[in-house]
Amino acid sequence: MCDSFRANVDWQFLTGAQWVAHPGNDGVRYGVRLVSDHEVVAGLPDFEVETEQYYLHVDPAVKVHAVCDFPVVEGPHSVNGPVAMPVVFTKGWGKGRVYYNALGHKAGVIGTGVAAEAMRRGLFWAMRR
Questions:
Q1: Residue spans per domain, the chain
Q2: Cβ–Cβ under 8 Å, residues 83 and 67
Q3: Contacts of 111 (CB under 8 A, 6+ apart)
Q4: Cross-strand partners of 64
Q5: Which of 12, 62, 99, 111 is placed for a possible disulfide with 89 were both Cys, Cβ 3.0 to 4.6 Å?
Q6: Distance separating alpha carbons of residues 35 and 2, to the nearest angstrom
């Protein structure tokens, strides 16, 4: 979602982020930490995934609900030290709602478990007014 329509700044503004890299490519194992009590993640435990770890440029207006820690793999970004990269966030857009979840490069990543429940909740949250 945040890597689509790269030349469209309105799309980037709407989605709340722009994908810039996935150091280590696919198959990186990392933890996802829940950092809010928002309804899309309330009561869910932290969990691990094995997938692409997205590095995003993020709109400061988003409400972050889950993060992953960078760096997990070495790269030119490592000299900057650790950062908590948003993985799940929400924001408003006009009268609408935006739910973003960086997980799911492959269906198995969000097919079951905590990741699937966060996705289900987020999609239902976005559909409500």
A1: 9-127
A2: no
A3: none
A4: 89
A5: 62
A6: 21
What's the burial of 8, exposed, middle or buried (CB within 10 Å: 0-12/13-18/19+)?
Answer: exposed
| DSSP conformational letter for 79 | G
Q: Count CB-CB contacts under 10 A for residue 82.
A: 10
Encode pLDDT of 4-40 as tens digits: 888 899 999 999 999 888 777 777 888 999 999 999 9
- State which fold the 9-127 domain adopts: Rossmann fold (3.40.50)
| Residue in this structure with the two tokens 């905590």, named with its chain if needed | 114
Strands 17-21 and 83-93: unpaired
- Cβ count near 47 (within 10 Å): 16
pTM for the full predicted model: 0.90
